[in-house]
Design goal:
235 residues, mainly alpha, 2 domains, 2 strands, 51% helix
Length: 235
């Protein structure tokens, strides 16, 4: 079983569900409850949320060298396969950049972890992480990717990689590419053709055909029904 299949199982369970529904954030924020329409009219956003988003977009957390390491790491965790592209192709590094600003509690662990990665790379191979070969990188990753078997002295690396794995998973499977990878289509509108005749007959009713043209119109399913004073459907 590959990494992607393991992560899908994780997402199918309570841990993955909790990760997605909490927005991958360790913090809870109280926002104004008056919704407004965001730019493009696609999402409901409060005035406070819009202000926060604009402020976060104007900031940059990762240095160029750090971003290179993030890109390497997320593609190790979520590589491309026959189903979909890699984490970088899904925009996961940008998602993690956003999360570092939206959830500042992550910043110390992230920046410290990236520094630890260079220190470990230098100790083992005399080079920074981005300059290592794939084999050398995986020698380090394999030592910190499995908490149950990792050496105690690598605890900081394990904690850092856990964070990277959580953020990568969350970022990938909340992207358009990730939804397609899972086969998730969201809520799909269906067409109601009325109560089946056999069910109506079983209970002694018949479908009044004069109303069929009114309430069996898929193209008008979002329209609010209107009734006359006697309770008859009129439109």
């Amino acid at each position: 079983m590959n990494r992607r299949e393991n992560i899908k199982l994780l997402l199918a369970g309570s841990l993955g569900t909790g990760l997605l529904w909490t927005g991958c954030s360790p913090e809870q924020k109280e926002l104004a409850d008056t919704p407004v329409i965001g730019k493009g009219g696609k999402y409901n956003r409060t005035a406070e949320e819009l202000e926060i988003l604009e402020r976060l977009k104007s900031q940059t957390f990762f240095l160029e060298e750090e971003k290179k390491k993030v890109e390497i790491l997320v593609d190790i965790i979520m590589p491309a396969d026959e189903v979909s592209g890699s984490a970088t192709e899904a925009g996961v590094p940008d998602f993690i950049e956003f999360m570092m600003k939206d959830a500042p509690a992550y910043q110390t662990r992230m920046r410290g972890g990236l520094m630890w990665l260079d220190h470990e790379s230098d100790e083992r191979f005399g080079k920074n992480f981005v300059d290592l070969s794939e084999k050398e990188r995986m020698a380090i990753i394999d030592d910190i990717a499995f908490p149950d078997t990792a050496k105690p002295e690598l605890r900081n690396g394990v904690l850092f990689f856990n964070l990277m794995r959580d953020l990568t998973t969350c970022g990938f499977y909340t992207s358009e590419m990730g939804f397609k990878d899972l086969g998730y289509k969201g809520n799909q509108a269906n067409v109601w053709n009325g109560v089946p005749d056999e069910v109506m007959q079983k209970h002694g009713f018949t479908l009044d055909q004069k109303y069929t043209a009114l309430y069996l119109k898929p193209e008008e399913r979002g329209k609010t029904a209107e009734w006359d004073e006697q309770g008859n459907l009129i439109g």
